[in-house]
Specification:
- The chain has four helices and four strands, in the order ββαααββα.
- It has 130 residues and is of the alpha+beta class.
- The longest helix has 16 residues.
- The chain has a four-stranded antiparallel β-sheet.
């Protein structure tokens, strides 16, 4: 499987567990890695045959702007679910960073991986399945 990346996607969010956090927007940064087979798109030069990182970035931004999560863990789950379901991605790695959340730390983050590179959908995309 090939990989498509979105790195450093910045979105301001209403996120946090403390009362003061529920009153302000805080910057978040997303790093996304998605497994797909880019060979059909590479051969045809057609966007419709690959992952449209602009559309995915817009969907993530809309999700964050229209939601109010307390934990970046919950947000990471929601982003991974959105990418897998809406864009048909069999495996995704999502890192959500919350810079400045802890004094004396440049950043705090969570990273999750969801899906499987050995799923039937991944095998079909790579031409391995029957």
């Amino acid at each position: 499987m090939d990989r498509v990346f979105i790195e450093g996607l910045k979105v301001d969010a209403l996120i946090g567990v403390y009362d003061w956090e529920r009153e302000i927007l805080q910057p978040l940064e997303f790093d996304i890695e998605m497994a797909t087979d880019i060979r059909p798109a590479a051969a045809s030069d057609e966007l419709s045959l690959t992952l449209d990182y602009f559309s995915i970035s817009q969907a993530i931004t809309a999700l964050v702007k229209n939601a109010s999560f307390k934990l970046i863990e919950s947000l990471a789950e929601a982003v991974s679910q959105l990418i897998r379901e809406k864009f048909g991605v069999c495996w995704v790695k999502v890192k959500v960073s919350k810079p400045g959340a802890v004094p004396n730390a440049r950043n705090v983050a969570v990273q999750i991986e969801r899906g499987s590179l050995n799923s039937p959908r991944a095998q079909m995309a790579s031409g391995v399945a029957q």
